[in-house]
Amino acid sequence: MLGDTGEAQRILVRLPADLPADDIEASVSPVAMVTAVDLVEAALRGDRAGWDGLFDRFHPVVYRYTLARTGDRTAAEEVAQEVFVAAVRTLPKLRERSEAGVEGWFVAIARFKIADRARRRAAEERIPATVAVAVTADAAEMAASRLATAELRTAMEDLTEEQRDVLLRRFVLDQSLEQVATAMGRRVGAVKALQHRALAALERRLGEEWAR
Amino acid sequence: MSRQDRDMDPRLAAAFAELRAESDAPADPGAVASARAAMYRAVADREQSRGLLLLLQRSRRALSLHRVLAGAAGTTMALSAVTALGWNAPAGAPLHLVELAHEQISLALPGTDRAAADLGYAEARLDQAARGDSEGEALGEAQRLLDDAHGYLPADHGNALWARWQTDSGRLVALRTDFEQEAQTPPHTPPASSAPAPAEGSRETTSTKTSTGSRSSEAHSTSRDEHESHSSTTSTPSGDEAHSSHGSSTTTTSSGHGGTPPPEVAQPEH
Question: With a threshold of 0.80, does the pTM exceed it?
Answer without folding.
Answer: no
